[in-house]
């Protein structure tokens, strides 16, 4: 296809061709597979443009001004018996040349096949493609953020239900050991507290931590009850602005250490990641 035909394809998709030009280009579409493919691609791009525009509220009074203008023009047209001919397209002021003596000045229409028109069409097509790509990327980011928000909401709901169950009457409860969780490496600035609570429902571990490193991707924090070399998972949690908590009910088995690790995901049955916080406890 020629440059002019490609420009006509863009104008055809935008419904900007007049009757003769449109009829001639549609004849080209019947004969050229390349032209039909280009028109289909341009239509896909233009369909994405509305999604790239930001919503905006109209200025106050705009509706009244527009309707008033339309009704006023309609009244003038009905009362006039003369139909005005459309004005010709004028050349920019910088391109006007004075008419020679004795000749009448005339206007020169801008050709759609000119270099300026081709650059304008190419620029509009490039802008449309960029807007379409940006819209797709934005939708993907919104989907990822929504998944993260849903995961955080599920974790918060689970923690609230456990805390609510722990607050139900359960006879006499007594506070067991409370230990400060210390950083396990020099580059860790996190800190935490592990508390044992014992009541008629059993033995419970409450872990709280803050200043935790930011999670990436599917990472999660996991709490461990350790007895010698044996490690029992007490569950996983995610952090919110560097803070997180966990409530866990367990059977005492002589555990001597409480620890928190940064794991690649929440599916591990044994530690695989970096040790963040730990503290020894009396055997529970």
From TrEMBL:
Source superkingdom: Bacteria
Start and end residues of each Anti-sigma K factor RskA C-terminal domain: 123-272
Gene3D superfamilies: Anti-sigma factor, zinc-finger domain
Keywords: Cell membrane, Coiled coil, Membrane, Transmembrane, Transmembrane helix
Coiled-coil ranges from the UniProt annotation: 135-162
UniProt xrefs under InterPro entries: Anti-sigma-K/W_factor (IPR051474), Anti_sigma_zinc_sf (IPR041916), RskA_C (IPR018764)
Subcellular location: Cell membrane; Membrane
The keyword Membrane is annotated on this UniProt entry: yes
UniProt keyword Manganese, yes or no: no
Lipid bilayer topology: Single-pass membrane protein
Pfam families from the UniProt entry: RskA_C
PANTHER family listed in its UniProt record: ANTI-SIGMA-K FACTOR RSKA
UniProt name for this protein: Regulator of SigK
Organism: Paenibacillus lacisoli
Taxonomic lineage: Bacteria, Bacillati, Bacillota, Bacilli, Bacillales
């Amino acid at each position: 296809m020629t440059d002019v035909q490609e420009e006509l394809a863009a104008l055809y998709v935008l419904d900007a061709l007049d009757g003769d030009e449109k009829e001639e280009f549609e004849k080209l579409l019947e004969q050229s597979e390349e032209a039909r493919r280009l028109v289909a691609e341009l239509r896909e791009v233009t369909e994405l443009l509305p999604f790239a525009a930001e919503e905006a509220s109209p200025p106050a009074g705009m509706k009244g001004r527009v309707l008033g203008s339309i009704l006023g023009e309609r009244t003038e047209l009905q009362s006039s018996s003369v139909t005005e001919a459309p004005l010709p397209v004028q050349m920019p002021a910088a391109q006007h040349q004075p008419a020679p003596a004795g000749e009448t000045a005339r206007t020169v229409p801008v050709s759609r096949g000119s270099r300026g028109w081709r650059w304008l069409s190419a620029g509009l097509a490039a802008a449309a493609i960029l807007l379409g790509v940006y819209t797709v990327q934005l939708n993907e980011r919104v989907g990822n953020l929504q998944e993260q928000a849903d995961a955080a909401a599920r974790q918060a709901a689970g923690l609230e239900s456990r805390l609510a169950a722990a607050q139900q009457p359960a006879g006499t409860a007594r506070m067991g050991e409370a230990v400060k969780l210390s950083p396990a490496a020099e580059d860790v600035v996190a800190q935490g507290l592990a508390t044992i609570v014992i009541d008629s429902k059993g033995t419970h571990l409450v872990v709280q931590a803050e200043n935790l490193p930011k999670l990436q991707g599917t990472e999660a924090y996991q709490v461990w009850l350790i007895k010698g070399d044996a490690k029992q998972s007490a569950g996983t949690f995610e952090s919110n602005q560097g803070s997180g908590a966990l409530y866990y009910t367990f059977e005492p088995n002589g555990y001597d250490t409480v620890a928190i690790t940064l794991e690649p995901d929440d599916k591990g049955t044994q530690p695989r990641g970096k040790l963040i916080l730990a503290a020894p406890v009396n055997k529970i």
